[in-house]
Amino acid sequence: MKLRIKIILGIVFFLLLFLETSVYILYLSQFHLDLSQDYRSIEGYEKIVFKDPKSKQCFRLCAWGLVKTGSPDVFEDHRDIDRSSYEYQLIVEKTDAKNVWQAVSSPDGRYIMYVVRTVVGQGYTTDEEIVSYRVYSVDDGKSTTIYSGYRQYLLVDWK
Prior knowledge:
It is built from 2 helices and 8 strands; from the N terminus they run αβββαβββββ. By secondary structure, it is an alpha+beta fold. The chain has 2 domains: 1-30; 34-158, no CATH class. It has a 4-stranded antiparallel sheet, with no helix packed on it. Strands 4-5-6-7 form a 4-stranded antiparallel sheet, with helices on one face.
C-alpha cells in the first residue's frame, strides 16, 4: 500500500513539474513554439531576428521555437520585396516557393532567408494560413525550414 502511494505521488510530482516547465516555456516563447532543430545546420542562425510588427517585440531562435530578446539597434523591414532582386529571382528559380513575402541575405551572402505564406485547407475561413521561415543555401541549393507557425506574421532581419 505504501509503495502504491509513493508511486502515485511520484507520478503527480512528475506531472506537476512537467506542467510547470511547459507553462514557463510558453511564457518565455509567447506561444511561438516549434520544436524543430533544423535551424542548427545554418551558420550564423543566432543573428536572425524576428519582430512582431504589432507589439514591436523581437525574438530569436531557440530549442522550443522563438524566445523574446532585446530589440537590435537597427531593424530593416524586408516586406517590400524587390521582385527583380538577385535574392528573389534565385528563390523563385531554385525552390518551389510561392507567395514569397520577405527575403533577406545573410551578412556573408551564403544564405537567403525567405518567408512564404501558404493557404491550407479548402478556404472556408480566413484563418488558414501557415507562415514558413526558410533559409536557402547558395552553396548547396538546399532549403531548410527554420520556423513555421499558424498565422505567425513576423518580420525578419539578419544582422
